[in-house]
Design goal:
Blueprint: E1 9-11, E2 17-19, E3 27-32, H1 38-50, E4 54-59, H2 64-70, E5 76-79, H3 86-90, E6 97-100, H4 110-115, E7 119-122, H5 128-143, E8 159-163, H6 167-178, E9 182-186, H7 193-199, E10 202-203, H8 207-212, E11 216-219, H9 233-237, E12 244-247, H10 256-265, E13 270-273, H11 280-287, E14 291-293, H12 303-323
Parallel strand pairs: 3-4, 3-5, 5-6, 6-7, 8-9, 8-11, 9-10, 11-12, 12-13, 13-14
Antiparallel strand pairs: 1-2
Bound molecules: 3-phosphoglyceric acid (3PG).
Length: 332
């Protein structure tokens, strides 16, 4: 049983909280409706327990009430895409830090956490390779008629257009180039042109041009109030004949009515998505093999990604309690 060592806070002028003594004996909950690989769980537990913390696990839970009960006495929380809503935060009076083991943190109510001075972090880059490999696999799968009989196409020589050139987008570009694709990318948040130049990727300055030139459009934008529903009919139908829209980002960034209309009108366009859109049945009807979605989000479902992201989350929690390190905080 870990010893509970009380810790002290020192409030600075900007109201940020700094820990001034080494803290052990925190209770950390791993809450994963979609569990990590066993090796990742073992590693997480070892890191946390070696630092003097205790670990609880809630896996494959079905009801939100199970999560609400499990957070009652925890100090720290590790999740994947699990929804950490305001009521979950309210049910955890001792909570000090939430780490989303992964990139996208749209599942965490960052404002509700901030209101209680709870730090929210992600683990950027740790599962990017797994997602990038899935994006390329989806391109080939769609080019080969979902692996059913019939003449397909090759991705070599095709234009791969990357929407958002962050950790995953860059890896998709590298892999696409290795497979002989012509890679172009658009990301208004990457101001430094040398990032594109270093990768031998053509920087595109308007979203319209990106879609107009895309044989394969790989989406890597986060789900934010600005991006939700932002990819719709006009962009999709501006893609060239036979183009494929590949979504390993979030289903919410698609305007589904526009997507359905586009695929119904254009019988050459394909859509492949890591997790089904709400309009799945409509797309099955109108697009047949031009549409495919994974039954459950599987971009980061590799042992390697689970180990990378899970262990990073555990180390960030240990460091936060030991030194106050907030390097990966996303709710400043
Ligand atoms: C992410 O944002 O990191 C990915 O979507 C992975 O999500 P998951 O941990 O639920 O698989």
């Amino acid at each position: 049983m870990a010893t509970i060592v009380p810790y002290t806070f020192e409030k600075k002028e900007d109201s940020a909280v700094y820990f001034t003594s080494f803290v052990k004996g925190m209770k950390v909950l791993i809450a994963t409706e979609k569990p990590f690989a066993a090796a990742a769980v073992d590693g997480i537990v070892e890191i946390l327990e070696s630092a003097g913390h205790t670990v609880a696990r809630l896996e494959k839970y079905k009801e939100k009430s199970e999560l609400l009960d499990a957070v009652a006495d925890i100090d720290a929380l590790i999740v994947r895409s699990d929804k950490v809503t305001a009521d979950v935060i309210a049910a955890a009076p001792n909570l000090k830090i939430v780490v989303r083991a992964g990139a996208g943190y749209d599942n965490v109510d960052c404002a509700a956490a901030k209101a209680r001075d709870i730090v929210v972090m992600n683990t950027p880059g740790q599962n990017s390779n797994a997602v990038a490999e899935l994006a390329l696999a989806m391109m080939i799968f769609m080019s080969r008629n979902c692996f059913t009989p019939g003449t397909g196409g090759e991705i070599k020589g095709k234009t791969l257009a990357i929407h958002a050139y962050g950790n995953v987008g860059r890896l998709v570009g590298q892999k696409g180039k290795a497979l002989g694709m012509n890679v172009i990318a658009y990301d208004p948040f990457v101001a430094d042109d040398s990032v594109f130049e270093a990768d031998g990727v053509e920087k595109i300055t308007t979203i319209e041009e990106l879609y107009r030139r895309a044989d394969f459009l790989s989406l890597h934008i986060p789900a934010t109030p600005q991006t939700k529903g932002s990819i719709g009919y006009d962009l999709i139908t501006s893609m060239p004949k036979g183009a494929t829209l590949v979504n390993t980002a979030r289903k919410e960034v698609i305007d589904e009515a526009g997507l359905c209309k586009a695929l119904a009108e254009r019988d050459d366009i394909k859509y492949v998505s890591d997790v089904a859109p709400d309009c799945c049945a409509d797309l099955c009807n109108c697009a047949g093999k031009r549409y495919f979605a994974t039954p459950k989000k599987m971009g980061a479902e590799t042992a390697e990604a689970n180990i990378n992201a899970g262990l990073a989350a555990a180390r960030q929690i240990v460091d936060f309690f030991a030194t106050g390190n907030r390097r990966f905080q996303v709710n400043k």
